[in-house]
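Internal ticket #5521
Category: modeling
Description: The requester needs a full-assembly model to guide mutagenesis choices. All entity lines are attached below as received. Residue total reported by intake: 1313.
Assigned to: D.W.
Attached entities:
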Amino acid sequence: MPRVARSCIAWLIVGALLMTSGSPAMAAESSEATAFFESKIRPVLVQHCYQCHSAKAGKSEGGLRLDSRNAIRIGGDRGAAVVPGDSRMSVLLTAISHTDPDLKMPPKKERLPESVINDFKTWIHSGAADPREEDTANAAAPPVTIEAGRKFWAYQKPTAHTAPTTKTADWAKRELDHFILAKLNESGLSPSPDAEPATLLRRLHFDLVGLPPPSDAISAFQKRIETEGLDAALAAETDALLASPQFGERWGRHWLDVARFAESSGKEANISFPYAWRYRDYVLDAVNADLPFDRFLIEQIAGDLLPYDNDAERARLLIATGFLAIGPKNLDEMNPLQFAADIADEQLDTVMRAVMASSVACARCHDHKFDPFSMQDYYALSGVFASTKTYFGTAVSPSNRIGGDPLVLPLGADAPILHPSIGKQRVDQLKTQLASLKTEQQDRLAAAMKARRSGGDAEKEFSIRDALRIFWTSGGIEGQLKKVDESGQALPLAMGVQDQQRIVNSPLLERGEINKPGQRIPRGFPRVIEIAGSPRVPFRQSGRLEFAQWLTHRDHPLTARVMTNRVWRHLLGAGLVRTMDNFGFSGERPSHPELLDTLAVRFLADGWSIKKLVREIVLSRTYRQSSVYREDAFRTDPENRLLWRASKRRLDAEAIRDAMLVVAGELDTARPVGSLVGTMIGDRPISLIGLDPNIPADLDGSKHRSVYLPVLRDRLPDVLDLFDFAEPSLVTGDRETTNVPVQALYLMNSSFVQSRATALADRVQREADSHEQRLRHAFVLCFSRAPDAEESKLAAAFFDQNQVNNDNDPQYRKLLASYCQALLATAEFRNLD
Amino acid sequence: MKTPHSDSRSTSLISRRHVLKSCASGFGYLAFAGLAHEAAVARDGGQAPQATHFPVRAKRVIFLCMNGGPSHVDLLDYKPALNQQSGSPSPIGRGRGGAKLLGSPFRFAQRGASGLWMSEVFPELGKQADELCVINSMQTDLPNHSQAFLQMHCGSFQFVRPSVGAWTLYGLGTENTNLPGFVTINPPSDNGGARNYGSGFLPAISQGTRVGTNQIPAFYAAILRKDQEPGPPLKNIENKNLSREQQRAQLDLVRNLNRHKLERDVHHPEIEGAIESFELAFRMQDEVPDVLDLRSESESTFKLYGVGSGLPTDRFGRQCILARRLAEAGVRFIEITAPVGWDHHFLLKDELTKSCLATDRPIAALLTDLKQRGLLHDTLVVWAGEFGRTPYAQSGNGRDHNNKGYSIWMAGGGVKAGLAYGATDEFGYEAVEKPLHIHDWHATILHLLGLDHERLTFNYGGRDFRLTDVYGNVATEILA
């Protein structure tokens, strides 16, 4: 049954977009006309109308404001209040004349005197002179002023601070330790002792590469500590982990949380994005290459505008812009203008939250209530994205009405292609089919128009069924043709952005409504952050490159701080600013402001190197602390804001799953080409994948690392969904941690966990000879430590002693697997000390 | 200054504190003192019953979701003028100038003591007229399925927002920790899919649990001849390898290892929580299949709901019984999406009749059954689609989407029974009397649950969000 109806037909038949004209240059108005306005018109408006129709009163009844030249001409729900020279079309005159029984203004009051109404007639007739400037003055002044904003800590450039001197001279290993220790001492607290080597090694491995340490790594680490000391052993281990490709799989994923990476559109018509995985791989590679963070951002925001030496580099830079293209989209939006505005809004909001931990998007509809961002700031930035074309590569289908072009990568880059070639013959066939559909549409349309003119039944000539069939079939064919070249050869496709042909400034939309465009705002960046020497938005380009340069300018107050805070959070459990994605007035203040600034400055000085920053933190004494509970310290600082110990943390969903594969000896560390979306799901509606028996019901069935599982909005693989994966429609700097029965059910009953338990049982049976050794071996694999006496007793008691020495007894194997599953299900397996 | 996950239900703080101190799932008071409100929500999942803003009229909601947009002018909104002028050019709406008015092919009659006008295709529901509060002046923003369906569930289609069920669970907590607090039965896989029972930025625990598999979009279902996904009613509820005794032994080992670890750690809420949640999960394995198993229902119940092989009411009848069982078991918010279509662009007379035939008896039975069991007075039953349909014809014998005016009904928990509220114009096109927008409707539902839609907020990214955004007025006239 059709889900689109007449509205869709109207839209697809008319097809044309109505572009609003630019702001009218204010014609020179004579001083007499202005004087007439000032003496006869303005006082009446102020006295009788502003109460309900002005920015000052904060009211725009009926969507109408009458307090500026622009507002009165744009009008409200009923159209323009004043049309200069045309009193008939001026709704304001109708309203005050009381000629329409449904529209009598001022409401519930006597009609204004005839003389006043005549004044308005005269005024409108003579051109409605109106000296009241557009209310950008209002729009430009957020409740929190720019001046006040500039004094706020987050909008001031960070400066390095001298580390405080601390009493316990030999405790600090790194500069940051002095800041931590000083604060602890101020509160009468002392740090915790170093964690046990095995605990520390486990923490380090999970934190840096998201995997448990190999079982032989523990003794090697301990040996190294004995010979070279803990500092050297830790440094060597850290450097090895930083250099391993698994580092990017862990830390790239942190960025993908922030980048709200997903492989489907989400929202109403959830359609897959079969090329999104290229961006995922780009991020992982960039993190492994330790691409300087400023360059990393510039590539993602404006890679298409950067110079390149060869096809491979060009492809890489185009794929980077996938950052802007992978956001959630209303692919069933009826109004193309609204769709474009929503995309720009989503991109703008994502960049601001991800990079600056600021939310500007509130200013789409009103000046920001807490932060110094005005509507003018919003629409200045919005123009940058409105001048950008987004390539997302979905085809029109019965599930969605918006198709999008894919981005074609240069052929010389040799990017892997996952969809098939179709051959020249098929291309010609499709083209013929498309042409005949176009002809049919034109013919039917002409026939329908003719029928309508002659009083016949237009619907008979061009029924809704016909229209939908043509629309959907054509959309599908166009989608297929976009994936191949003229000869039917499959093209390497990606998601990304490029500048639009037409560079525009966005109009300020009253209340953010698409049909209420006001004055166009020149493209630019939020004014609360002024950076001397930052490049200006060029006339012939979108300004994305300049925006990226502005964001990554050395004087930018937020970018380095926000990223430093993100890195800190992943290593120490909470950010120095705990509201990871909100550094605004309503966000939390940093617990150690001088430390945050000093680290941010250092991050810049180290060439925006994420690896160096990670290294700096994990080699600190602070990181090395034990997580053991201390009642006295807990009473003073139960939330561990001052870091008197290492925070205990639940592992992320990916680490839990990967760790199961590792201990079972099953993890495939190779990177798969593409993802389930690229290889199997292709471009189909997510609402249908449950019918495909080849697609695993839990969307897993893989032994690759979890970072390569398909990330479908509103349809995540079970393990990610259950263990608090980052909501892929939102910028997420801080995943939540829940502890709920459905997680337990997954660990108890899912086929994934049961299979891992069986594999682990097989492994210990293979690798250890005696029953006791097997129990112990499983324990060491799972927890990087041997069982203590009590645990050994519990383990032994689990088994029926009659069966323990019979390797071939299926009951024994089953019991061993059950034991292994119990270990995988313990809290210790998924928690870090 | 609020923490990112703090909520502003200051009234609930006392009860949460009380609960944490006293109930088995909590931890000691000292621990609580150290936990930010955020952590409390994260660890107990915000699941403990919460104090409310207003007296509670309804303790739970059963939402009968009519996916597709049922035709209000053929079901609940009687329009004699439309019948009289049937066939004449439509003076209203997008049909103006082209389409013709289409009178209802169904007879209407006044039913019950209240005299509510109802269509002949609701013979059984008509007998329950005096329980219903029919709202004839509903409005939603767009006449397009996907947006309207999401707006009906989440208030917004443009942005990712929690669903009304998630807000309910977040606001009230659950009554039975052995079961999920928000259950959706056979939801559609399109029109936003899981978003419609998602938790958005609210704690994940408040998201809906799907029972039964997804329904396939009607368009594809017709082609593929499959209307739902294969799969078990609830994932991971069954262990195929271990007997219950074997699993109990396994869980004892898990619990003992966890306890041992906890003793060493002294204070470790995550492990305390894990011990508790495994025990809950073990109990859920028994309780959930019991609730889902209809075999214990009596013959007379099956008859009442129209359950029986080959009967058109069989499938929806089973779903309605299941909804009642979940309500009895203490589930806070239950949604059923009727496995029939309401999107009648064509052949309205035949198709609407079929959809009504499949749902009329089960729904009437649900109301009767709830009343008999003393549950109706504090259960809010809601019947709604995402919009209504145009009074003018489409394709000669169907109707197009209409968002400007349509009908829904509510019954039970705190609504005025036997009331027709608001009105559309003479043809049923646009709500002209007491229009009730989705935001107003959401505000009213929350009010009935004892929650103030302006105070039930969640701080995300620096802003306090509400189900009703900046809108919503409670329709006080419909409150009993």
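Resolution: model delivered.
Comment from assignee: The radius of gyration of chain B is 23 Å.
Ticket closed.
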